[in-house]
Every structure is written in structure tokens, then in C-alpha cells.
Design a protein that fits this description.
- With 294 residues, this protein is mainly beta.
- It has 2 domains: 22-42 and 159-279, no CATH class; 49-150, Sandwich (Tumour Suppressor Smad4).
- The protein has 2 helices and 17 strands.
- It has helices at 22-41, 152-155, and strands at 50-55, 59-64, 71-72, 82-87, 90-95, 101-103, 106-108, 112-114, 126-128, 131-138, 141-148, 170-187, 193-206, 209-218, 221-226, 240-245, 251-255.
- The radius of gyration is 21 Å and the shape is elongated.
């Protein structure tokens, strides 16, 4: 239910630029990766289940479908679910009398202190009927992120769509490192901003042009956000993401066949980092995920 910068369970496979095993093996590997992506989109962790994002103010906030609640859930939810108490950065939850509620799968009947953490650490997950929610920090504020196992986004999902696999979009790139690793504030679609580590730019050749992308450090790999000439046409207008392995000998592989849409493409309640202005490529990248079913 929380935003991730990469899709869980999708391995980073680094191949030589001249693909070992030949083009057929490479195409099969990409198709398998895409099937894993589609499976994830239908899983319990899918962003398609995200149906609400509510700011949590200081003090007590009641939750439920009752219109008098501080945070009003969809009509299928119980009228009274419970009360979230916020004291600074400390949170607790007390279920409403007569409502069956579980925290991390364990039934609760009394006030319980909640673990509230920033990705990739887990926050406590509260479940009631078809709904699950957790509290996450974002941009100095805290939000209830609500999932629904019967989400309309999930029911209407027709599957991801992709450009045909083209090995020409699997490119070796040279890292141009900064003198010192930087931390930059990256704006999110919901209006907040989060610090990202930046180690440098990657430089590569495509369609006869020398291109440059700012890359962000995410765990043990690089995270790339970009827009291109297909944005708002064949692909999502807010841009796309992809991962690349940490550079070896100053080089890495950019595989645009694995470029995928941010969660904001699937749920209006997701909050996604926005590609920096310098990552707007002047050419169309006809590779990776499209946005044709929306």
C-alpha cells in the first residue's frame, strides 16, 4: 500500500550489451520480467488497491464511513472503525466497540501503539472488512493510506501494455560522477518533496544523439526518472521509471525495455516523484510500458 520506487520481486538482470544467448533469449527474459510486473499489479501489494490518502492531524481522528468521522472511508467500510491518536510523531489506534479490527493480522480490542515508518521500513497495517490502512510520513506530514481489496481500479485493470521488445533500447551508459554525492529535494505529485541521493549523471548515445540523465541512488542500484517524446501520447504524461545496476568501472546498462509507469498512472491517491526537468529527453523512447488502456 506504500509507494516504492521499484516494483518488488522484479530482479535487475544485467547482461552484456551484446546479449548473451542471443536476441531470442533476451526477448524471453524481458517478457518474463513483464509478466512478473503484471502479476505484482494484481497482488496484495498492488497500487491498484489504493483508494484513499488522508492527512492525519495532531490529536484524535475518528475513522469510518460515518460522514461525521474525521477521516471518512468509503461507504462499504464499517461506520465506526476506531480512533487514531497523534502526539507529534507518536501514534496509537483504538478500535471502535463492536468492530472487528486486526493489526498486522492479529485481532485487537484496546488502544495499541502503532509503528509508523518511512519506506522501506514497514508501518503497522490495520485491517477491517475489505480494507487495510497504515500511516506513512511524507514531506513532514503523516497520511493514512487506505487499500481496498475490492478496489474499482483493481476490478477494471486490463493489464499492462508495452512496446515490442527492441534490443536497440538496451544501452551502455557512462557514469559522470559529481565531485561529492548530493542530496536533492525531489517534488512529489501530492505536493510534498523528499530528499534523494544523487551521485552523478549517466551519458549515453541513442538515435545519433548524446543524451544525459540524472540518476538517483536507491539501495544498491540506480533509480532513473525520465520523460521523452512519447510522454502524454503513447506513454504516461508524468514520465516513467527504470532501474539500473550500480556502475562497474564507471559504466552501467540502461534498459528502456523495462521502463515502467509510476503508481500515479494507476491510482489518483498515489504520490510519486516527478522527473527532474533535465531528465526530459528530446527524442521518443518507443520502449517499455505504454499507457494505452487508460
Amino acid at each position: 500500500m506504500t509507494l516504492r520506487l521499484s516494483k518488488p520481486g522484479l530482479p535487475l538482470v544485467v547482461l552484456a550489451v551484446r546479449v548473451a544467448g542471443g536476441v531470442d533469449a533476451y526477448v524471453a527474459e524481458i517478457q518474463k520480467w513483464r509478466q512478473q510486473s503484471d502479476t505484482f499489479m494484481r497482488s496484495e501489494k498492488s497500487p491498484l488497491r489504493l483508494v484513499g490518502r488522508f492527512k492525519v492531524e495532531e490529536g484524535a481522528s475518528t475513522l469510518g464511513s460515518d460522514p461525521a468521522s474525521t477521516i471518512v472511508f468509503p461507504g462499504r467500510a464499517p461506520r465506526q472503525i476506531g480512533t487514531v491518536m497523534r502526539r507529534g510523531q507518536a501514534f496509537s489506534f483504538e478500535p471502535a466497540t463492536g468492530t472487528q479490527v486486526a493489526i498486522n493480522g492479529q485481532p485487537v480490542t484496546r488502544s495499541t501503539v502503532l509503528e509508523v515508518a518511512k519506506n522501506p521500513k514497514p508501518s503497522d497495517r490495520i485491517s477491517v472488512a475489505d480494507f487495510t490502512f497504515a500511516i506513512r510520513p511524507s514531506g513532514g506530514d503523516f497520511y493514512v493510506l487506505l487499500q481496498d481489496s475490492q478496489s474499482v481500479f483493481l476490478r477494471e485493470f486490463k493489464g499492462e501494455t508495452w512496446f515490442p521488445v527492441d534490443p536497440a533500447y538496451r544501452i551502455e551508459a557512462q557514469l559522470s560522477p559529481y565531485e561529492k554525492e548530493q542530496q536533492v529535494l525531489v517534488p512529489y505529485t501530492a505536493g510534498s518533496a523528499e530528499p534523494f541521493k544523487v551521485s552523478g549523471d549517466v551519458i549515453f548515445q541513442l538515435m545519433g544523439q548524446t543524451l544525459r540523465l540524472k540518476v538517483f541512488v536507491s539501495g544498491d542500484h540506480l533509480f532513473v526518472m525520465f520523460r521523452d517524446g512519447t510522454s502524454e501520447k503513447e506513454t504516461y504524461g508524468g514520465g516513467r521509471y527504470m532501474e539500473a545496476a550500480a556502475p562497474q568501472n564507471g559504466k552501467t546498462i540502461l534498459d528502456f525495455n523495462k521502463a515502467y509507469n509510476p503508481y500515479c498512472a494507476f491510482s489518483p491517491y498515489a504520490s510519486c516523484p516527478i522527473p527532474p526537468r533535465q531528465n526530459r529527453l528530446p527524442i521518443p523512447i518507443a520502449a517499455g510500458e505504454t499507457y494505452l488502456n487508460h
